[in-house]
Amino acid sequence: MSGGKLPEALKPSLLARLAHYTQAQAEGRWDTVASLLGPHRGAGHSAVPYTPAHRACLIEQMKPFPMVSFELGNEMFSTEILSTPPSRRWWFIAGEAVFEVNGAEQKTQTSFIAYRENGQWYFTPPNFDDHWEKAHLTDADRSANYTDEIVIHRTPRCPLEIDDLQARLDKTYPSIRNLAFKLKNVSAKRVTGYTLRLYAKGGDVIYGAGYTIEPGDSRDEKMDSTRYSYLCEGIRKDNLIVDEVNFADGSAWRLPKPRNTAAKVRE
After folding, report:
1. 8-state DSSP, 5
2. What stretch(es) of the chain map to CATH 3.10.450?
3. Interaxial angle between packed helices 129-136 and 52-62, expressed in degrees from 0 to 180 and rounded to the nearest 10
């Protein structure tokens, strides 16, 4: 074996398992397909263990687009660290798939993940979120205000107050929330810059700006927030907080590091 290529010794078992996977979809045996998804979506550090709801949601997304056959191409590689034995790695698989859509077969190039777990192959299908969004999101969904998915943390004595939050779905990518809100200077000093933090379990987004806000005045601000990475993993709530405020006199306010309460991540 060289680099991250699939060892030839593993190829026969992969092809046999792939045939089982596509045949189950062609025959509508979705319980079998569900078992072939394995214990988690994706693999390596990005693997997400399936909950029953997550697995059921993914199967419902797959049903309108069963992959009834797949011809393995030449692109099979893994970015797993080389010290991981090949028999326990995960692999990017690419080739020509045949999907059945509305009773007609459609050939297309596709890729997905195959991974090894306890000596067996399992598969993570392509992302079907785009198809689901086009089929299910209504105009009302797209124009709704999702402020209940954003938690604003109000820190005592913070010079800036976050008000009038609006959270709308991005017109192009509904997995993104477009946030709009006002920052009000509730201090007695001129603000010349600030840092905001949008965070959830798994990461955060830091936004810094050098704008002036006079005492008592407000400024309109915008940020983007990830609503989900994959729809079936569930909607992610984000937390919004002011981290730092700079003043014209050279002083600054910084978010205290709390022992509990405001800055804890909401799961």
Report:
1. B
2. 8-126
3. 80
Task: Please give the structure tokens belonging to residue 102.
Answer: 């509305």
Helix (H, G, I), strand (E, B) or coil at 21: helix
DSSP state of 213: B
Amino acid at 79: T
State pLDDT tens for residues 195-215: 999 998 767 888 999 999 999
Task: Give every CB contact of residue 241 below 8 A, 6+ residues apart in sequence.
Answer: 152, 153, 155, 196, 197, 199, 255, 262, 263
What is this structure's pTM?
0.81
Per CATH, the architecture of 8-126 is what?
A: Roll (3.10)
- CA angle 14-25-53, nearest 5°? 95
Q: How far is CA 117 from the centre of its chain?
A: 23
- pLDDT for 171-197, tens place per residue? 999 999 999 999 999 999 999 999 999
- Are residues 41 and 90 in contact, defined by beta-carbon separation less than 8 angstroms? no
Helix, strand and coil percent figures for the chain, each rounded to 5:
25, 40, 35
User: Which residues of the chain form CATH 2.60.40?
Assistant: 139-263
Q: State the CATH class of domain 139-263.
A: mainly beta
Ordered alpha helix ranges (H), the chain: 11-26, 30-36, 52-62, 129-136, 139-143
Mean pLDDT of the chain: 89
List pLDDT tens digits, range 92-102.
Answer: 888 999 999 99
